[in-house]
Amino acid sequence: MNTQKLIKSILFQLGTVLVGKDAQIHDSVNCLLADGHLLLEDVPGVGKTTLAHALAQTLGLQFSRVQFTADLMPSDLTGVSVYERESGGFVFHPGPVFAQVVLADEINRASPRTQSALLEAMEEKQVTADGQTRTLPQPFFVIATQNPQDQAGTHALPESQLDRFLMRISVGYPERSAERLLLGGPDRRSLVANLPAAVSAQQWAGLQGAVRQVHTSEALLDYVQDLILATRSGQWFVHGLSPRAGIAVVRAAQARALMRGRDYVAPDDVQDILVACTAHRLVPVGGATLGARAQVQALIQATALP
Known about the structure:
The protein is α/β, with parallel strands linked by helices. The longest helix is centred in the C-terminal third of the chain and has 17 residues, at about 245-260. The protein has 2 domains: about 5-205, 3-Layer(aba) Sandwich (Rossmann fold); about 215-300, Magnesium chelatase subunit I, C-Terminal domain (Helicase, Ruva Protein, domain 3, Orthogonal Bundle). It is globular and about 70 Å long. Helix 1 crosses helix 2, helix 1 (about 5-15) packs antiparallel against helix 3 and helix 12 (about 245-260) crosses helix 13 (about 265-280). The protein starts with a helix and ends with a helix. Helices cover about 45% and strands about 15% of the residues. It has helices at about 5-15, 20-35, 50-60, 75-80, 110-115, 120-125, 160, 175-185, 190-195, 200-210, 220-230, 245-260, 265-280, 290-300, and strands at about 35-40, 65, 80-85, 90-95, 100-105, 125-130, 130-135, 140-145, 165-170. It is built from 14 helices and 9 strands.
């Protein structure tokens, strides 16, 4: 099966569970194709957890879910060594982070210390516990959900952790016709539990490898640099994008081009993913009448095309 047929089969299967959320499904698959971590932000009950679980099932990946709470400890994520009398020594028991897809549900309800426990895993794809470094399964993705910060019991994610997420997207309320299907249709949890894998591990690795082969011209890279430098000008944001964010933009744009059946990145690929890839990393300048997402859109309009 060729690349486009594989991608279409993934998108179609996810669409049978997440009704009326084609844009969010495309962005989520785009993020994982680019080997990035995904942050889903919205009010409770709109399908964030369902999307994360459906992604893992569809890609045939080992799935683990952690409900973040105020008393969750870092060792609850990474694992702990327990003394076993039979062996006469300590044996390490891996935590839920040792899975290919880790759903960090309501991540901003845990303390900053526990949130930071994910940093090494997200960046290095390894965990250091009891003085020993252990490699995580491959591929490894963190899909985190968070509630709006104005809700009770939430903590803002540290900037360093936000920067580890390739994309942040909002699921949003369903349209009336889609919600009618949800109200009268089968339970979404049972649908997700019975989803077959749409691709094999080898096929998924091949898709990710194909992303890295998508061509980026010098003119296209100039355009990306122009956008990055514009964020650093002080006109739009307090601090500009880091080089890591710039790499994330290019990688996500390559994945978007592949999903469209092209072997090269075009400016519209960059524009389509720029808000989801950068708005969570940026703080608008004081007095700005627009939020970060709208500011990024305005920056796109103000930056000349190559």
